[in-house]
Amino acid sequence: MSTLNTYAPSPAWVANAHVKGEAGYAALVAEAEKDYAGYWARLARELITWQTPFTKTLNDSDAPFFKWFEDGKLNVSYNCLDRHVEAGKGGKTALIFEADDGSVTTVTYADLLDRVSQLANALKARGIKKGDRVVIYMPMSVEGVVAMQACARIGATHSVVFGGFSAQSLRDRVQDAGAVALICADEQQRGGKSLPLKAIVDEALADNSCPTLKDVIVYKRTGGKIAWVEGRDLWLHELTAAQSTVCPPEWVEAEHPLFLLYTSGSTGKPKGVQHSSGGYLLHAALTTKWTFDLKDDDIFWCTADIGWVTGHTYITYGPLALGGTEIVFEGVPTYPDAGRFWQMIQKHKATIFYTAPTAIRSLIKAAETNEAVHPKNYDLSSLRLLGSVGEPINPAAWEWYHANVGGGRCPIVDTFWQTETGGHMITPLPGVTTLVPGSCTLPFPGITAAIVDETGNDVPNGQGGILVVKKPWPSMIRTIYGDPERFKKSYYPAELKGYYLAGDGAIRDAETGYFTITGRIDDVLNVSGHRMGTMEIESALVSCTELVAEAAVVGRPDDTTGEAICAFVVLKRPRPTGDEAKAIAKQLRDHVAKEIGPIAKPKDIRFGDNLPKTRSGKIMRRLLRSVAKGESVTQDTSTLENPAILEQLGQAY
Ligand code: PRX
After folding, report:
1. Segments of the chain scoring below 70 in pLDDT
2. Which of 238, 467, 622, 632 has the smallest C-beta neighbourhood within 10 Å, fewest atoms?
3. Which atom of ligand 1 is closest in space to residue 531's alpha carbon?
4. Atom of ligand 1 nearest to the CA of 524
5. 575: exposed, middle or buried (C-beta count within 10 Å: 0-12, 13-18, 19+)?
6. ipTM computed for the complex
7. Can you tell me which residues bind CoA (predicted)?
């Protein structure tokens, strides 16, 4: 790491941050080491308002099904809204919503509480109650946040499905969750275009494929033409209009499932990651406070979509739990031009900006080709802190972000975490950590991240290994919905001594002990910060039964998207070349978009008469990875059944 620049926090940062300097960090780590449960109990009492205080902190009697604060009762929406209004902050701006076309709506805490309460009452009037699952398929909108909070208010468990997923993906999720209601919009507005949502819902629910689902509640975003199913479809504005703005919160046990969020694993269908109410809220609030150093006068902007975990924790829950003010953006970073982010930071005087490396890399490219959208043309002096999430950030992108967006003065928190972890796990703290580009540095205080070998033994710094978390933590995944065995197998494999398996490889610097994530160790890809299983994409390809005989999917590095999806396909007809191959490749991409969503479209498709297999019939994936990268194959191919196909696979379409 010695060749990289390092950036120590300024004295002002050390003096003013919530966690002050290395001494402040060390004191917290020591507190957690001395009395682990006591540490989390203290924070849970400080950050959360409990209706019934908890007396038990951690119950590990049924490990790895851990319980936190189990006899305490709370309501997440009460913690995000009512308590701020009760404290006299009802007039404070909670959300600054900027639409695709640039129009802005602000919503105060008092307004937000009214709207959440009205929708909560409407849901109750439809018979939706504590424990029911509600799927949310919404664009980035105030209504999306309101829908999530309204579910939390009545104790219904929400499952948000990203608006880019296909009808088939939506159907799978509605079915797996056994959802009773679905909240969607007529359309979404992105990059100057209206895109369907309700039409995809109609397709997902066709042929009575989701019998548990009774209500489809539609938010009118664009007023575009949509089909209507009488008796099932309901306008959101009609349902809420007559409802009272008072809705007493449903007090739930700390372990009550706040939400399910489906994410990809290395095998099978996406899994419904189940999160709790109390432990999850604690970490959402605590990490927002310490990692982002959120203060009362900050304007916080997380650019993630509420369809991903980052949007859950750092839009819907963390900043609101602390009574913060945040920006919610409907559009895309490149519309009307690639200066949109910088223009919005300037316009709203954002102080904290949290985005993904993919976005940064694509905006670097845009600024290189078009001077006018370079951040130097905008007044970004309001910024005091930057963040990165979702994938490793390469040092060059880090340095550009630091110099051109942060003006050289804003620390960057490179936050490593996952859907399963609920919030930040390994991250710098801005008033503490000397930053090294490309490293997520050290564990958040209380998080026992470590690097071990295949048998769970610690490996020395400087030597790579498997990233684990040794002790349970409050915001951890509770189970995979409906599949506790898969939960155990995926995250607590027997050979790892009861440690949580993150699924990433990592290495710690020999001198500093800083962590660098080296990438997934399973068959999960990270494309533009979106997580996808290679098996899922393979299944989607082979489901094109009229064309595809066999498919294998691997990732390869990509300058902009981090990883790119590369598919190797054997057709049921002779191997195509030239224009015919191009046309079939397009057909296959469209098929994958229909099965999963456009984000899963393979970038490269390579056709072969067969796939490279060992004589025992195993697909040689390592070899495919080399081919995908365009490397000359140096591996031993003597076990290859049919070496000639390597040449065929050299051509990508
Ligand atoms: O591989 C790691 C990568 O993203 C995975 C988690 O993806 P997901 O559950 O979709 O959540 C993304 C947003 C939290 C991890 O297993 N990842 C996430 N953050 C980083 C990262 N890799 C390197 N550095 C990060 N900061």
Report:
1. 1-2, 634-635
2. 632
3. 10
4. 1
5. middle
6. 0.99
7. 190-193, 310, 528
Contacting residues for 27 by C-beta, under 8 A, at least 6 apart? none
Task: Give distance in angstroms: CA of 502 to centre of ligand 1.
Answer: 10
Burial 190-222 (b: 16+ CB within 10 A, else e): beeeebbbbbbbbbbbeeeebeebebbbbbbbb
pLDDT score of 633: 72
Binding annotation for Mg(2+): 542, 548
- DSSP per-residue string spanning 187-207: EEEETTEEEESHHHHHHHHGG
Query: How many CB atoms are located within 10 Å of the residue 109 CB?
Result: 24
Q: What pLDDT was estimated at residue 236?
A: 98
Pocket of ligand 1 (CB under 6 A): 263, 309-310, 389-392, 414-419, 440, 502-504, 517, 520, 526, 531
Nearest CA to ligand 1 atom 15: 418
Q: Whose CA is nearest to atom 18 of ligand 1?
A: 390
Say which amino acid occupies 150.
A
Known binding-site residue numbers for ATP = 390-392, 414-419, 504, 520, 531
Binding site for CoA: what residues are annotated? Answer: 190-193, 310, 528
Residues 273 and 469 sit within 8 Å (Cβ to Cβ): no
Let me know: does 541 contact 569? Beta carbons within 8 Å. Answer: yes
The two three-digit tokens of residue 260, written as one number: 């399910």
DSSP H helices, 349-434, are: 357-369, 395-400
Which residue has a Cα nearest atom 12 of ligand 1? 390
Looking at ligand 1, which atom is closest to the CA of residue 414? 26
**Closest residue to atom 5 of ligand 1, CA basis:** 418
Residue 281's contacts (CB-CB under 8 Å, 6 or more residues apart) are 48, 74, 76, 79, 258, 317, 321
Closest residue CA from atom 6 of ligand 1: 418
Q: What is the pLDDT of residue 1?
A: 44
Query: How far, rounded to the nearest angstrom, does the alpha carbon of residue 459 sit from its chain's CA centroid?
Result: 29
For the four alpha carbons of 408, 411, 416 and 420, in that order, the dihedral sign comes to negative
Q: How far apart are CA 233 and CA 227, in angstroms?
A: 9
Q: Is 240 helix (H, G, I), strand (E, B) or coil?
A: helix
Q: Which atom of ligand 1 is nearest to the CA of 388?
A: 26
